[in-house]
Design brief:
Blueprint lengths: L2 E5 L4 E3 L7 E7 L2 E6 L6 E6 L4 E2 L1 H6 L6 E4 L3 E7 H10 L1 H28 L4 H14 L3 H14 L6 H17 L25 H19 L3 H14 L3 H17 L3 H14 L6 H14 L3 H13 L5 H12 L3
Antiparallel strand pairs: 1-8, 2-7, 3-6, 3-8, 4-5, 4-7
Amino acid sequence: MPKPAQYRSGSLIYFQGDPADKIYILQTGKVSLVYQDIETGADVRDPVQPGEFFGVKSALGRYTREENAVALSDTTVMIFTVPEFEAVATANSRIIMKMLKVFSNQMRRVHKQVSKVMAKEEQPPADGLYNIGEYYLKNKRFSHAKHVFSRYLTFYPSGKNALQATKNLETAENALSRYGDGKGPGVSVSHAAAAAAPPSGFSQEDSDKTTKAFYDAVSLVSQGKYQEAFMSFKLIVDADTSPEWTAKASFEIGRCMFLLNKFEESLKYYTNMLTKFPKHPELKETMFIMGQCNEKVGRKDQAVAFYKKIVSMGGDDAAIEKTRRALSALGA
């Protein structure tokens, strides 16, 4: 059974580099997660709120702690072993949602740091995305690397680094399957992508600003600040400095509407978006959200139609799998 534990103000709950075999829920008091900024080496502190989990990712991933956890006041926590946590999470979907929020915040933290580093190197968006993937791969964060290289190949299938991105994606998938995140031998990566000239009419300064604005808005989504994220993505779309960024931000606007429970508005927006971008890279995900919107407003038949259309598009990716589960849940 989970056990309560108390820590006095200033106590270290765990150290960076410690084995990770426990998961914590903050009940009372204040806890800060302290880690080093990858750019400056300075300490950065992330507060943990009462009711939130911490130590989840490293414990479930079976790799050592990435930060120090410090009690800032007299603190009470509930400590779970990994099997205990998995049992509780399996029986309670709210636990899973909180866990996903923790993961999102941790990914946001790393993305924010990496974006700061990449912005200083004055690269176009494709190169910045590619190098973020290399950063994750080199640091054995294979699930993150897999996601980033997949995104690179989705948005830049003919990019100058597409061949290497394909190889790196395969390396990340194999390492993740064989060793798991944070484990295994070091991975060698190719040299960083060389800077390329930005598209005509699209200055490097525009590229940097748009890249930063987009990932800042993504961070807002991970924090649950959907209205603020919506406004930020809308500014990118209105500026229309690059078709690729406009398309990506357009998708995120519709997703923000869905997360704000504005289901009819999301449907109308996505319908217009697909008129402008009929081959949008996020076509399947867009149609899935449109199906979800129809479910939310009680139009089961329309939802089923969207889901069946996605399945008919073929492929064996995650979008198809979750669409099949949605169809099954509707009895279709």
